[in-house]
User: Which sequence fits this backbone?
């Protein structure tokens, strides 16, 4: 349990300016985040707990498909970015002058790190039977403008996974496994119904790349959904005047404004070739390796979940994501009772925030509204007279009295 | 439990070059880490688990003294570094040119972020009753040379805590609380006996700063320990020809080569003044705020623990730090039995690695030696014949048979 009196952070009466989306605005107002510079946010304690909950859901689903967690460097070697011919072509690449008179990259993505890293460990076809690694780590993009709060950052938290395969068929099979894991992530985050698996323009080695685009009423992307088979298409791959579904050839579609939350790519041998990754097959032949990559924007998801589930006034977190499952508002001299109740709830794996501050009910109830914790408990002389504590879901207007 | 067959990493027969210390060399050989560039290391799965264990011990002890975890940005605003007059004076500060034609700092420490951040939430003396925050986050130093592996990084993991106080007395009191928390960290990491609380040269606002210096046989620092009262002094604050103990005025001392693992500073109002942090006292007067800061090098600790506990050949992790508490080597068709045993051990909160690879005993035993996991279990036809599994501590030469 956490005692709110222990936190130095505060809510604000009104939504601060500085973000063009409501989710980020509400997070600022609730004191979950604060800006260092445009596109780079600090997470206070409640914000960090929320971020970690999203991160852990993603982690569990990547672990479940047998990918191994690692942690790579934010610094990148210029030579490696030159080997892939991306040093001069990736326009959002931060280039960092160093004291030894060189330049490093500040990685916006990690093909240039993971490919030589895994290359050190691969010799034979046996080493590629199940070769997938992921990390959850800060990325950097040298954006000219960064006005969208958590949705478009100069510094942001990503999960990026990379898989290495002997054949296109093995890549294709793993790609579907990863796709299913992503579906489970969005299910657990409460975003299944609003997230569309979308065909987008491909890289060098496949016709399409695949995006997960979420409807939250805002976004930088437009998708076109076939009214017959529901397949979504990014604007960039269709002719708006003559829509033809890439899946079923139907010609009617619905247009939606969406936000990208994840993407998965078949990279083919674009990067493995650049670093000379090969393996020896069972018959002794040297062969190429093909790769897949799979990203999810963790901090971006936090901003979008804030945006999507907020009511007309305040944040409302889904229970899986909320910084705490319960908030107990204590009025009067009942802190010890509150702690006993919190311990009981925690024994059922429900996390608890106790508002034990020396302030009035109005302030506590107002802050609880801003925090958006899904289940609120009030413990006061009045509720104890009525027979226990008052329990109210954040999405309901009336509470019920529950006996201790 | 983790199945070793699932990991794409491998050990190496001999220690690779590229590090001037044995700890980092052994970590490279065991496949726990890999370099991106000098001073920037990737953590593979076993390396990351080790790092996280150290991190969690530090986290628990900071939580235990009521500090609140937050997460700050790696990017820093140049204006803030100019406000503290450190933009031009901190020689290891990375300066990052941005697309908007400005420069950002890549933070090596976070006074320039945390001071204005906390400043937003402080008005009254009540807000300073218990105001301490910490983060566990990557830091960057623009080092001319970086040859010491995990011990001196361009990118490295730190815990940094900052406290804010109304008076020097309150700062002094919290400083001792933090000092005790640090002692508990080093106790749990198995470094108590070899870590010296050392007087070092102060900042602007106190006579000394305080370092935690660990004896592991290597290091960049020299300390002088009073033979009477045991107080350690950094070389920089004494006259080597005329030693006088700063604590008891004794004049005999012992010299040791050590490595710095942590430091704690009283910052006074150096940073709070730079950002105009003030509070209103109970009597309505506006007063200055004083600060303390408290660092621990997490990735550096991993390198030093590797160095300290290794025997003449290989890594040996203390149980609290080890990537796994147990490693089960399975020989023959006993994987299901191994999994049952692992579940039993995990129900006692002991983590388990199972070597289920399709290789011989020699390879498995050799890799287990390299990994340095403190408790090894062998499960084979032979041990089952003898009545169960063989259990051997990494530090012992003979195992014992334990019945299932």
Assistant:
């Amino acid at each position: 349990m956490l005692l709110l009196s222990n936190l130095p952070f505060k809510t604000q009466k009104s939504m601060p300016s500085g973000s063009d989306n409501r989710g980020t605005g509400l997070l600022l107002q609730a004191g979950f985040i604060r800006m260092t510079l445009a596109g780079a946010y600090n997470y206070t304690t409640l914000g960090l707990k929320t971020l970690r909950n999203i991160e852990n859901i993603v982690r569990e689903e990547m672990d479940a498909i047998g990918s191994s967690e690692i942690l790579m460097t934010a610094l990148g070697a210029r030579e490696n970015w030159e080997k892939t011919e991306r040093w001069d072509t990736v326009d959002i690449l931060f280039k960092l002058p160093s004291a030894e008179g060189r330049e490093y990259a500040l990685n916006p993505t990690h093909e240039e790190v993971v490919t030589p890293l895994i290359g050190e460990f691969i010799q034979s076809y046996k080493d590629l039977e199940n070769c997938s690694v992921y990390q959850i780590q800060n990325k950097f993009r040298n954006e000219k403008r960064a006005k969208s709060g958590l949705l478009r950052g100069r510094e942001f938290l990503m999960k990026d996974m990379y898989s290495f395969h002997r054949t296109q068929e093995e890549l294709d099979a793993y790609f579907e496994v990863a796709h299913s894991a992503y579906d489970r992530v969005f299910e657990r985050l409460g975003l299944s119904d609003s997230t569309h698996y979308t065909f987008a323009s491909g890289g060098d080695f496949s016709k399409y790349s695949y995006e997960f685009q979420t409807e939250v009423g805002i976004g930088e992307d437009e998708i076109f959904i076939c009214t017959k088979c529901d397949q979504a298409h990014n604007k960039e791959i269709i002719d708006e005047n003559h829509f033809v579904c890439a899946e079923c050839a139907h010609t009617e579609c619905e247009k939606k404004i969406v936000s990208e939350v994840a993407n998965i790519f078949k990279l083919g041998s674009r990067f493995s070739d650049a670093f000379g990754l090969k393996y020896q097959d069972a018959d002794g032949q040297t062969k190429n390796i093909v790769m897949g990559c799979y990203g999810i924007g963790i901090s971006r998801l936090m901003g979008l979940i804030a945006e999507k589930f907020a009511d007309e006034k305040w944040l409302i977190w889904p229970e899986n994501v909320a910084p705490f499952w319960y908030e107990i508002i204590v009025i009067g001299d009942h802190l010890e009772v509150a702690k006993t109740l919190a311990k009981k709830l925690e024994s059922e794996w429900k996390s608890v925030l106790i508002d034990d501050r020396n302030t009035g009910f109005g302030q506590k109830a107002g802050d609880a509204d801003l925090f958006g914790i899904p289940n609120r408990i009030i413990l006061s002389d009045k509720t104890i007279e009525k027979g226990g504590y008052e329990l109210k879901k954040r999405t309901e207007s009336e509470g019920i009295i529950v006996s201790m």
Chain B has a mean pLDDT of 95.
